[in-house]
Structure formats: structure tokens, C-alpha cells
Amino acid sequence: MYRLATNPGVSFGWVEGRVVFLDTGRDRYAALPADLERGFADIVALGGQVEPQAPTTRRLLDTGLFHLGTGSQMLRPLNRALPSHGLEHARRRLSAIDLAQVWRLVAEARRMVRTRPFASMFNDPAIDRHHLTAAKPIAALAELARRFNNTRALVPIAPNCLSDSLALRHWLARRGHRCDLVVAARLEPFAAHCWIEAQGIVLNDTPERIATFVPIAVSQ
Fold it and tell me: Where are the chain's structural domains?
């Protein structure tokens, strides 16, 4: 039995009734023609089981998003609920050391976005070099995120969801905290967005602002 499987670095989700793919290996978002999308939906309902020579299978393979496998792993979209909680705003005394560190992290992240492929940022090996844990108290992680957010507001670099999320992820990782980088999309018109989550809390956005987006990829 053959199964259709996504290529490494490819994930997908159903956004407003349409399937949207993130292909980190090719730095692209992708969709399918309506007729092929219907065939793909049928294949997903079967867990990815396909006939290798079927026209729909061949067309899907030609997109570069899939390959044929013989394993038992099911073909499934990302199914991740949006966080319902964010950080409460709290005024904090700003630190010159924090300002220097956050400024450097944001500048480095902006440079990465311009010069590095998305896959190398999404699954950044530099993050894995830190001793990370997801079990630390959320209060400590939230306080660190507030420090970053308050300080980021003083950095004279235009906000950008990707570079700011990368910078926050490195800020937390250097302090031993694991978090998730979530990439989401919406349609009509198409827009992509990303943010940082930990333990069900969005750390650099608000539940209200992300409510119209559907997660399609997550990097831990």
C-alpha cells in the first residue's frame, strides 16, 4: 500500500475551506487548483492512501510538495487551536543592558530574514544548542517576554512579525525557555503571519489580532 506524504519541510492546514501549504525548503506558500484540491481532500480522508499511477496522484507529485511512501504515517493537516490568552501589559523599568541585547537580536533577526532561507530560520540549529525546557514556570517565561516586548518598543527598527518572533525566540532560548514559532495564514486577501507561543499563551501578539489566522506550521 502506498501513501502520499508531504516532503520534508512541508506542512499544511485548511484555511477558510482551502488548503494552504508552507514549503520551508523552497521558501514558498502554495495552494492547489480547485479540482486537484478536491482530489487531495479525498486522499487526506483516506489517511494518504493512493494509487501511484492515478492521475490525481501524479499531479500532486508534480507540485513538488509530496512523495510516495510505504510507511504507516497518516497524511494530516496541522490541527492547532489558536491561543486564547496573551500577556497582560505591565510597566517595567527598562534596562540599558536589555536594550542593547534586544536591539542586537532584532538586528540579527532582520539580517537573517534578508539573507537566509526560511528553513534554516524555522528550524534553527542555534536554538537547539541551548539547554531548553518547556516545563519551567510560565510566570518566569511571561516576565521575560514582557521584558523583551517593552524593550522592543524602543528599538528604532520597523516591526516585522517574522524577525521579531525570531528575536524573541532567541531571547527566550538563551535563558533556557522552549517556545513555539507558529506560522499562520488567511485568505481573501491572502496574508501570512507568525508569532511565538508557549504553554498556550501568545507572547508577542494578542488573541484578538491573530483570531482571523489559521496555523499551518509550527516549529518547536
Answer: 2-69, 85-219
